[in-house]
Amino acid sequence: VQLQASGGGLVQAGGSLRFSCVASGFTFRTYVMGWFRQAPGKERDFVAGITRSGNSQYYADSVKGRFTISRDNAKNTLYLQMNSLRTEDTAVYYCTKGSIRGQGTLVTVSS
Length: 111
Prior knowledge:
Strand content: over 45%
Helix content: under 10%
Shape: globular
Distance between the termini: 37 Å
Largest sheet: 7 strands, mixed
Radius of gyration: 13 Å
């Protein structure tokens, strides 16, 4: 199983970023997928999840209305669109398949 995330970087508060996570080594369309994040000195937290078909999405209260998770099963790719970013969104973001996570991509939101 490989989960290769990209799209992190430095952004000002109020800005936007979009992550992509290309999955390989398993049948992507048959798994619920998600994004977690870990801020410096904190535990890893759930951010968003999406069902196998992509018809249902789930969000942490802290990102609801600002972040959108989506997937393209034909491309084996998971996405996270992040808008209205806040300094508290600064973290390493991980694409996940169950308990398996990719290498993470860092987002730094400056004030």
